[in-house]
Amino acid sequence: MSLQTTEDGRLRHLLTLEGLPRATLVALLDRAQAFIDGEGAADPRTALAGVAACTLFFEPSTRTRLSFQRAAQRLGADVLAFDASTSSTSKGETALDTFRNIEAMGVRGFIVRHREDGAAAMLAASAQPGTAVVNAGDGRSAHPTQGLLDVLSLRQAKGADFGALKVAVVGDIRHSRVARSELHALRALGIGEIRACGPASLLPDDATLAGCSVGGDLDAALDGVDAVFMLRLQRERMEEGLVPSLEAYHRDYGLTAARLRRAAPDAVILHPGPMNRGVEISDEVADGPQSLVLRQVANGVAVRMAVLEALLA
Ligand code: CP
């Protein structure tokens, strides 16, 4: 039995998409789509009535934190928002003590973001029976709900036959928990081809890119692809000197309208946000007709409803 699933395969926590069966991913995507289509079997407004959930974020966030709060509210949960900057974290209280204290208040759902790899799993391992932890981003490791909402956005745009699709994952893969979760989801759903592209200094040196073609030539990576998964240049996690300058990065790895013409004419562009406009993506691509950026954000609420319902209802 893994930490995140029970012996009969049910989710107890959602910490990573790595190793999750395709059927589990598809069930979450289908449930999210049902919420979008207004086809929830039961009234979603009461699914989590009487359940308390806390967004326990030790790192900044706009999309993930607020869309989890929106998702929990739409399911009827009571939502507590933990703000690290005004909490006793500033007095030196550990994440584990913080978690245990909030759990002692009767909170059953924890949505955790932390800069340390494995932080959400560490809290999940300490959780009482009946408490669920969702990883909302830990270090460079995983951001599972982002991976889910990205593949849901791709499925809406291109259909469920992922085996027929070629995609490019572009940019700062080395520091990206989003890329790792996207890659796990794409592989589990049987994607036809993944091209990973970025400067050698921003490519991971572990097994993250197993099965991908890997290169540093963006024009070649874009040739004929059906979707481009752009990544944020994570300057806050970066050692000095990994990119020569933002201008050079944009010249070599920025997605512009001219470059995008190399992809299939109906290719779609995804970016998890926040975007460094003018660095990894130009305004005209970010705001253009092929961009799914705001669709991804909208899908994030539905995906997070599906996850919270699966864990807490
Ligand atoms: N995509 C994403 O995780 O955005 P936030 O950091 O704003 O939550």
From TrEMBL:
Domain Aspartate/ornithine carbamoyltransferase Asp/Orn-binding: 165-310
Family matches, as InterPro entries: Asp/Orn_carbamoyltranf_P-bd, Asp/Orn_carbamoylTrfase, Asp/Orn_carbamoylTrfase_sf, Asp_carbamoyltransf, Asp_carbamoyltransf_Asp/Orn-bd
Catalytic activity: carbamoyl phosphate + L-aspartate = N-carbamoyl-L-aspartate + phosphate + H(+)
Cross-referenced Pfam families: OTCace, OTCace_N
Pathway: Pyrimidine metabolism; UMP biosynthesis via de novo pathway; (S)-dihydroorotate from bicarbonate: step 2/3
One example GO MF annotation: aspartate carbamoyltransferase activity
Residues that bind carbamoyl phosphate: 63-64, 113, 143, 146, 273-274
Its EC number(s): 2.1.3.2
Residues holding L-aspartate: 91, 177, 232
Domain of life: Bacteria
Ranges of residues in domain Aspartate/ornithine carbamoyltransferase carbamoyl-P binding: 12-155
Keywords noted in UniProt: Pyrimidine biosynthesis, Transferase
Family note: Belongs to the aspartate/ornithine carbamoyltransferase superfamily. ATCase family.
Database matches in HAMAP family: Asp_carb_tr (MF_00001)
Function: Catalyzes the condensation of carbamoyl phosphate and aspartate to form carbamoyl aspartate and inorganic phosphate, the committed step in the de novo pyrimidine nucleotide biosynthesis pathway.
Subunit relationships: Heterododecamer (2C3:3R2) of six catalytic PyrB chains organized as two trimers (C3), and six regulatory PyrI chains organized as three dimers (R2).
Protein name (record): Aspartate carbamoyltransferase
Organism: Luteimonas padinae
